[in-house]
Amino acid sequence: MSQISTRRTVTSQRKPRRFAHECAIGEVFGRAPVYDLIFSRLSPRALVRTGRSCRAAYAASKDFSHRAFNIRRHLSRFLTDPLAFRSLQARTGTLIAGSNVLQFLDRTFYPEADMDLYVHPGHAIEVMDYLVEKEGYTFRPNSAQLENYREIVSDGWDGTAVRGEQLEGEENSLYYQIKGVESVFSLDKPGPKGPLKVQLIACEMSPFDTIINFHSTCVMNFIAFDAVYSLYPIATFEHRDTLQVWRARPLQDHTVMIKYAGRGFSWLCTLSVGTPLQKSPFYPSKSRTVGDKHTWRVPLDTQGVALRPQMNSSSSLFQNDPVIFNGWSLEREHEGMTTIYKPIRSAVFRYNYTTANAKLYFRLWQIMLEQGLLSRLLLRLNLLEKGRWPWFDAELASLWEDASKHDFMPFIRRGFSSL
């Protein structure tokens, strides 16, 4: 039997060669003081693209973003207990919007800016009580308001009542300069560098309905309990453009234009006629939803945030923020641009929503009609108590996912306004 000779080989362990550019990258993205200076100068899109260039840049960009988009630090200017407030947001669907959110996403600071809270129907008294009793704010009524906010805000909201179409109230529109506002409450408290001011906006339909009708696109950003959203991020943070979007009234207050011009934004009254729709950062004539591929979403750490409990024993557990189930489209109207959508207002849902998707609207209309009639019949026959009235907000997720697979905007543009 022949033997197979074996030869013992010794493999020298050599260190992998490091190229010059790898050493340089390690020097830059391995030191926080260095890459902080770089990332602080980049726009959001440039920050993301830089993070995708290599592993070292990715780790550095993640570390920078975690510190730059620190929600606790951001809220601490106005709130002594940001975590408790975010639990209130999770429970009530309250959104922070306006220039406060623009500062957060733009990593800048406007010393004169206050904090605006947008509240769903039925939650205003709870949020007001929290600000006054837990955060130490004082209500400052205007000349037309009573001294006691509890005499203005009713805690007897009836979620089972029939919800009619939203009225275009000229009086409120002219007084508050924002569509969909039922009332505005101003509060303040002493701060280390002067008074801290908060405005609570009680919305007629929903916070999103009010936000999507702001004066222009650069302030269509909002903070929910679990994420921060920007609806037009490329136009706002890359091009520094803001498109005027007005609904049912013309722009009369030119101080808004001047204010945002001073903050570095170019004010566009409308889109150029020759602008290719598919290349516009405003995505006109496109069915949009909150959180779609055109939205910039910054997820927030929700550790310690108490989520919404079950609304009642007849309703499925619903712990999403209602804002994610909203849609709209930006369309030309006369000489300018406007947002279009169909409101979803029904006691079948605890919250009100919007959509620009015809298939989804027709499906929801069917559910609202059938389930609404059944619930009211049971209530009339004393077979259902008001406290156990079933809401179907939790079921929206599957309906939304199914409808998002189809684009129905051509049909909507032809006949949606007549629905």
Overall description:
The chain is of the alpha+beta class. Helix content is 33%, strand content 15%. It contains 15 helices and 15 strands. It has helices at residues 20-29, 32-39, 44-51, 55-68, 71-75, 82-92, 99-106, 124-134, 170-176, 207-211, 233-238, 255-262, 358-380, 396-403, 409-415; strands at residues 95-97, 115-119, 138-139, 181-189, 196-203, 221-223, 227-230, 241-243, 266-268, 288-289, 296-299, 327-333, 336-340, 342-344, 353-355. The strands form 4 sheets. It has an 8-stranded mixed beta sheet with strand order 3-4-5-2-1-6-7-11, sandwiched between helices. Helix 2 packs across helix 4 (55-68) and helix 3 (44-51) packs antiparallel against helix 4. The protein is globular.
Which descriptors would you attach to this protein?
globular; eight-stranded mixed beta sheet; alpha+beta; disordered N terminus; 419 residues; 15 helices; 15 strands; 15% strand
Q: Can you describe this structure in just a few lines?
A:
With 419 residues, this protein is α+β, with helices and mostly antiparallel strands.
Question: Topology, please?
Answer:
Blueprint: H1 20-29, H2 32-39, H3 44-51, H4 55-68, H5 71-75, H6 82-92, E1 95-97, H7 99-106, E2 115-119, H8 124-134, E3 138-139, H9 170-176, E4 181-189, E5 196-203, H10 207-211, E6 221-223, E7 227-230, H11 233-238, E8 241-243, H12 255-262, E9 266-268, E10 288-289, E11 296-299, E12 327-333, E13 336-340, E14 342-344, E15 353-355, H13 358-380, H14 396-403, H15 409-415
Helix pairs in contact: 2-4, 3-4, 13-14
